[in-house]
């Protein structure tokens, strides 16, 4: 096989670690490669792309193509594999803004390629929107190169180390206040920066080690604690955690921000610590500085973990991917232990019981449902079945599912409401556990795996749930639910506010089948109604990271309306009256919650011109628990009613 490798910058670390380091391994496997830097001129590029016809495959690394480049490469190449390891669809400087200059070339290139190789599941999720043949291949490193004896220290200082480029040095600078505090409290600490640019600290000495391929390993292995701070945004979540792997290979405990794969590569309390605030950075770092035994213990655990990222292992996987793409072996579905199926690869459903039934109620959500199915197929946990109950769709949902050709259990029924659809899903599910996801929402790639892990470590039946990211109609993340979640018997907390959603949660199937059904009389909140009842009998366990993305759009069932507020009020009021257990729901708590719900319903009644209902509800809200908001809203309602009277 002959491979044309097209790169944009041979000096980039990503080229060294994702391409150059594997060229010998490719040659040993009979894959000859020619590495070419993409020239600047359009005519020179066209001549290069014409040469693509001489090769079995083009391996395009990280470069997104403009319209003309994509046209010529597509015309002359036999196969194109696109490899990337950064969130290049976003701007590093302004990740919160949507940048057409970044997104359109990314979209164009991904759509052109025959196979996408992404550095992590977050990047793969973005690519999978435009190409079904996406594989995850982590960045590897030569762990054997780090097995060197460190140079004996000339002092008793504990060295904190950070390695990176000048473009990412600002991430380290963000924890300067924490570093300054550590330096002011302890006199035996040094910050070592391995980079091509540096900064100073007032309270801590800084060792400035210019980066080079020859000295980076000795500088790392002679350090004591690896630092990997990272802000949480759409660009940084795409980072592939190479410095984490370097620290681990150097036998260092690691303190990292829990962002992207950093939170996966560092097991909190085992191979290092997660730190989300300056206080945590100070406390965790000082703990490791003062405990040499703990440093050695965590360093050994990190070193054991990093072995699976060795270039020998990753290189074999890369060779298999290249060979599979060229030979059109669609059966290849695992990369480095991370199984990521292509949506066009269909397997007939089997009759055996799956561990998890992922259940989707849907009604006229054809366009969104495709993305929801993609998010299920992208799960790192594979022992799943997909069950869909179509509650009377008229938008071609069934035809769309047939065209995808993926294995699902599909049931159509006349429109009966969300609760009826969920009851039917429970009936059809064959898995030991049930996880719901609405047909306009998206599961995060490791959600099922994380929930199953919790379910299988408990000795009794439990219910697992998580929080969510907010996304808009186009799937763009614009926020995160910051509501505090609770574990245990959460009845009082759940009564106070809706903590548990049907999406991104997991239930033992037998629990749902043995419990009362979803209430078909409720247009919305049938899930909230059931979770309240289940909370009196079962333990709920909250995950520390979100499990799904919740989409907000103009046709959401749960929009803020007077009618929906009345249903929410009905659910909590009925539960409080029927429970009769004042230890579960103290009287003061009930008064506060019911007053707040009535105030909210009254507020929406005013918005919709229902002034009589508004006055009644707001008056009840104030009498139940006197508060300024209810009084203000009631006054507005009274004035509006008088003005509206003839």
């Amino acid at each position: 096989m002959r491979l044309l490798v097209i790169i944009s910058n041979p000096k980039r670390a990503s080229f060294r670690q994702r391409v150059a380091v594997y060229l010998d391994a490719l040659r040993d496997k009979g894959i000859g490669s020619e590495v070419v830097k993409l020239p600047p001129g359009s005519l020179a590029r066209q001549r290069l792309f014409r040469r693509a016809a001489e090769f079995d495959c083009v391996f395009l690394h990280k470069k997104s193509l403009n319209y003309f480049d994509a046209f010529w490469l597509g015309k002359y190449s036999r196969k194109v594999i696109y490899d990337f390891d950064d969130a290049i669809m976003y701007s590093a400087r302004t990740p919160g803004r949507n940048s057409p200059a970044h997104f359109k070339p990314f979209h164009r290139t991904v759509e052109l390629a025959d196979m996408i190789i992404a550095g992590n599941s977050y990047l793969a999720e973005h690519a999978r929107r435009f190409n079904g043949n996406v594989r995850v291949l982590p960045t590897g490193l030569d762990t054997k190169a780090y097995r060197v004896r460190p140079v004996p220290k000339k002092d008793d200082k504990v060295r904190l180390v950070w390695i990176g480029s000048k473009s990412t040095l600002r991430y380290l600078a963000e924890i300067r206040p924490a570093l300054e505090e550590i330096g002011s409290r302890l006199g035996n600490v040094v910050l070592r920066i391995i980079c091509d640019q540096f900064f100073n600290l007032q309270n801590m000495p800084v060792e400035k080690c210019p980066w080079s391929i020859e000295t980076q390993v000795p500088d790392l292995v002679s350090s004591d604690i690896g630092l990997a701070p990272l802000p949480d945004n759409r660009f940084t979540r795409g980072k592939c955690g190479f410095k984490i792997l370097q620290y681990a290979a150097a036998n260092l405990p690691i303190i990292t921000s829990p962002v992207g794969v950093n939170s996966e590569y560092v097991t909190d309390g085992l191979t290092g610590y997660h730190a989300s605030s300056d206080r945590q950075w100070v406390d965790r770092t000082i703990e490791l500085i003062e405990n040499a035994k703990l440093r050695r213990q965590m360093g050994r655990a990190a070193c054991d973990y990093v072995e699976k990222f060795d270039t020998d292992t990753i290189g074999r996987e890369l060779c298999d991917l290249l060979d599979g793409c060229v030979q059109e072996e669609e059966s290849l579905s695992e990369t480095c232990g991370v199984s990521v199926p292509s949506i066009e690869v269909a397997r007939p459903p089997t009759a055996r019981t799956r561990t998890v039934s992922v259940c989707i109620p849907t009604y006229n959500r054809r366009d969104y449902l495709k993305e929801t199915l993609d998010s299920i197929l992208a799960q790192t946990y594979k022992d799943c079945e997909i069950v869909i109950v179509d509650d009377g769709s008229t938008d071609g949902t069934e035809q769309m599912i047939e065209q995808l050709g993926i294995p699902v259990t599909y049931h159509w029924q006349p429109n009966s409401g969300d609760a009826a659809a969920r009851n039917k899903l429970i009936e059809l599910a064959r898995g030991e556990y049930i996880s719901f996801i609405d047909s306009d929402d998206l599961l995060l790639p490791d959600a099922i795996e994380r929930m199953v892990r919790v379910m299988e470590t408990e000795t009794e039946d439990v219910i697992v749930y998580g929080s969510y990211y907010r996304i808009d109609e186009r799937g763009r993340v614009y926020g995160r639910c910051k509501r505090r979640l609770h574990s245990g018997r959460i009845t009082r907390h759940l009564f106070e506010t809706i903590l548990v959603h049907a999406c991104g949660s997991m239930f033992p199937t037998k629990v749902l089948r043995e419990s009362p059904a979803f209430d078909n009389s409720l247009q919305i909140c049938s899930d909230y109604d059931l979770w309240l009842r289940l909370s009196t009998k079962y333990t709920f366990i909250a995950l520390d990271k979100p499990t799904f993305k919740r989409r907000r759009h103009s046709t959401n069932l749960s929009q803020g309306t007077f009618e929906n507020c009345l249903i929410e009020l009905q659910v909590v009021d009925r539960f409080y009256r029927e429970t009769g257990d004042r230890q579960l729901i103290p009287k003061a708590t009930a008064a506060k919650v019911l007053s707040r719900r009535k105030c909210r319903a009254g507020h929406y009644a005013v918005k919709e011109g229902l002034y009589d209902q508004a006055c009644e509800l707001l008056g009840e809200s104030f009498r139940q628990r006197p508060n300024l908001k209810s009084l203000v809203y009631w006054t507005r309602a009274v004035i509006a009613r008088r003005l509206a009277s003839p």
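The chain has four domains: 2-136, 143-309, 356-551, 582-644. The chain has 25 helices and 25 strands.
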